[in-house]
Amino acid sequence: MKQSRRDFMKVSSLLALAPMAAGFGMSAFRGTAMASTSGAGSEAVKAGANEYFKKSPMASGRPFDYSMARRWAPNADLSDFASVFPQIPGGIAQDKLLKLAEEEMGQWMAKTQKSDEMQKRGMKHMPWGVFGCYQKDWETPHLLFAERCMGNKLWDVDGNEYIDLNFGDTPDMYGHGPENPAVKACAKRMLEDGISPMMGNEDQLVVAELLAENFGQPYWMHAMTASDANRYVLAIARHHTGRPNVAIPNCTYHGTIDETQKMMPEPGVIARWHDLGIYHGEVDQGTKIFNWNDLEGLEELLKDRTVAIVMMEPVMSNFGWAWPKPGWHEGVRALCKKYGTLLCYDETHTISGGPAGMIGELDLKGKSDFWTCGKAISSGIPGAVYGMSEAVAKKLQKDQGEIGFLTGAGLGFLGNALCGNTLSTLALRVTLEEVLTEKTFAKINKNVAYMKSEMERVNKKYKAPYRIETMGNRLCYHFIPEQAFEPLGGLIQVGFGGLFEFSHAYLWNRGFLLMPYFNMVIVAPQHTKADTDKFIAAWDDIVRITMNG
Ligand SMILES: Cc1ncc(COP(=O)(O)O)c(C=O)c1O
Asked: Counting atoms of ligand 1 from 1, which one is nearest the CA of 228?
């Protein structure tokens, strides 16, 4: 078994605390899956009764383009986490860096002892000691417990104050608490109107109109999470086309869905991200995987006309970032049309791009059959939406009407009792009307542009070949200078194996709450220039230290 990210993060030894609690979190990739698939060669492998790694025609057999990734990490390979550490000319040695990361982490852990106690107490009745799956994904020696979060700040139970740059992994990206008008309106709604009448209300009408105007799809439905919205879209697409399979790019994330929690560690091989037997069926059942930016590979998978839908982000933004090459989106659209396959953009993270998300920025509005979004679209109040074309919506309604007795209950498969509740709907309405606006983004963009240029100035000062990228209110620092167009390059730039671990531990320990998966900084409307300047000073330290200064 080769090395997983978990092995890099042996930062617990200083305090003799528990080892990393969990496999690597969702947004980048599951380190444990990488480790186990890589050791397996190309044969089918079983974990208990479950086959989780398989050579399969459902995975594109076309070679991966590793050329960029291997310029920085000569042995880079998607199937081995130990291979992805980039060699930076003039950069600090990896072992030294890991030692520094360990020291920073040790100090942070020492400051958060009450969290440690709480996790121990929580372990008696909750796996990992916390309720939420993401909450275990910090992979710190002990997990963190929060007292409260408000505006641009978060306070942990030990009284440490943080400038929040994570916002719950994006749901609260327009700020925690009532400074966000959607949150304020919802608090009032709960007190005055109640939330579950199981009837439509006027907000729904306005929201559907606003969604249609802003994102292009003419018909809309509500879900409680982005995972659910995507799940319903896959189901509707299968129904609409009568086809069994879905297709996704390699290393994508669309939530807690069996068909999309799979990857292609090497050409022609499908693996689960994890080796748990939590999903039934063969690992390649229902899912085809292609390489991002590889139109020929996609065409090979679509040719047999068994693919109901291609689901992807407008820009791959969960495994590090990988950008679309010119012609990619047009090509995907043309292939989908040629083979009768539907297309869905999942904008759950790329909504950061601007008031109409990255489909607005990339001129993709209304050019797909479906569009989904969760988390920040309702300012962090639980809720998600999926939009669909007229053809899809009309057939869905017609078929539902014709199926007969008990079909009303059957439609429950596309939603549950909480969908369309008045609270989430109001959150959507206010977010669309007052938060996702040019005015909000003008403010944020100014701050983001300042942060980017200052960070670039620091990079130059220390001759660091680092790169700063932005996607609206999300900023990423990368440890290589090249832009990534495929997921391995996307991973190399994160600097797993020392640069990632050190920079995160350093920032956490100094009061910046950065998300635990990769190097993403969220800039909220509530962040002040003082917050930004404090962050830039910390970035100066990180660059100096990692460049041996
Ligand atoms: C692109 C994308 N789709 C779907 C999801 C799943 O969202 P949720 O956890 O709300 O189901 C995420 C979560 O990060 C995401 O990034």
From this structure: 11
